[in-house]
Design goal:
249 residues; 9-stranded mixed beta sheet; 9 helices; 25% strand; tRNA1(Val) (Adenine(37)-N6)-methyltransferase
Length: 249
């Protein structure tokens, strides 16, 4: 496959899957990998990923689960096109569909109340927070320029069937906003796991599972630690990335 001047192909370590990324654009981060592994769709599930970027979460979800199909929704044309090329690179056109649309349009395009799982790694920063990147792709991916937490939760709820599951990764500092938006859209937070850089460090990510029209009950999972004290990845992170012992050392 022919690549653009600033692009490269990375090996995901899952079924031989590979992904195209732009060296000067927005590449996927660990948060997307963690979310892709946190989501647990059942056999034959229909899945939608909102704000799919370069398609990393659909690739992980399809690679690690026996799902029927994963729809990736991405508003940025160039990034969606990159994700589509990654799908073709892995010959997954029948399993992963990329849609270059605003996620708020997803229910009209994909249908309502029919999906088993929706995932999202949305922009973390509200308008006015943090430094705005001059690179438009990074700005849209990191700041709530094109969508808000409310937009994501509302769209997820419309897409999901009764008792369907919504998985999100976000910043702990936005939890109040997240819970308000989830419940306002009939998505009940059921499980939550904090992600810490290392033991005794404050969490910088939170993984959330919510269920549509479920009863209230929130369970806290054991924390996930990324690094050991010596700076190496923890065993769980190596397992998530599929690294062997030689790679660990």
């Amino acid at each position: 496959m022919e690549l653009k001047a600033d692009e490269r192909i990375d090996d995901l370590g899952i079924r031989g899957y590979r992904i195209i990324q732009s060296e000067n654009g927005f590449c996927f981060g660990m948060d997307a990998v963690l979310l892709g592994n946190y989501a647990k769709p059942k056999h034959g599930a229909k899945v939608v990923d909102l704000g799919t970027g370069t398609g990393i979460i659909p690739l992980i979800v399809n690679g690690k689960n026996n799902v029927e199909i994963v729809h990736g929704v991405e508003i940025q044309r160039e990034v969606a096109e990159m994700a589509e090329r990654s799908v073709k690179l892995n010959s997954l056109e029948e399993k992963i569909k990329i849609h270059n649309i605003d996620l708020k349009e997803a229910p009209e395009t994909l249908g309502v109340n029919i999906y088993d799982v929706v995932t999202s790694n949305p922009p973390y920063m509200a308008i006015g927070e943090g430094l705005v990147n001059e690179n438009d792709r990074k700005q849209i991916s990191r700041h709530e320029v094109s969508c808000t937490i409310e937009d994501v939760c509302k769209t997820a709820s419309r897409l999901l069937k009764h008792h369907g599951k919504f998985y999100m990764v976000h910043r702990p500092s936005r939890l109040a906003d997240i819970f308000v938006s989830l419940r306002a859209n009939k998505l009940e937070p059921k499980k939550m796991r904090f992600v810490h850089p290392k033991v005794n460090a404050k969490p910088n990510l939170v993984l959330i599972e919510a269920v549509k029209s479920a009863r209230p009950e929130l369970l806290m999972a054991e924390p996930l630690y990324i690094y050991n004290e010596d700076g190496s990845y923890t065993d769980e992170v190596h397992e998530i990335y599929g690294l062997d012992r030689e790679q660990k050392e």
